[in-house]
Amino acid sequence: MSILLATSYTWSQFGREAEITIAIYMKCRGWSVKLSQGSRGPADIIAAHKSIKWLIQVKSSTRIPKLKGYEVKRLIKMAKIAGGLAVVATLQPAETVMVPVEEHGTISPISIKESGIRIGNYMLYFYSLPEWKRISP
Length: 137
Fold this sequence. Notes:
Layout: H1 11-28, E1 32-35, E2 45-49, E3 52-60, H2 69-82, E4 85-93, E5 98-103, E6 106-111, E7 117-119, E8 122-128, E9 133-135
Parallel strand pairs: 3-4
Antiparallel strand pairs: 1-2, 2-3, 4-8, 5-6, 7-8, 8-9
């Protein structure tokens, strides 16, 4: 008798693992980190270091990560209330890295790899909102 184990890997699991990866990276850099319960709310991670507080929305994808306008607004509002900085972190395979660039009031992707943080076969970028300025922890 053979037993067939069905294993499926979901996008939800990939997203949660990206959050954990970024949380571990931040902890290794000396930040205090708290993950949201079940990825609920505008911020997936709340990270603090000295007097700095980041509320981080994690976006991970094998392509260009997608972020909806209302998600950005909710994150900015939550960060303002909490006295922190609204941050988007993107984690995606290094060979497909596309980062947002603002041109004429719209956000468009361009391919770029320099100045990112390499984690295995992935690239990690942090952006402060609302100006989409690349930042480092």
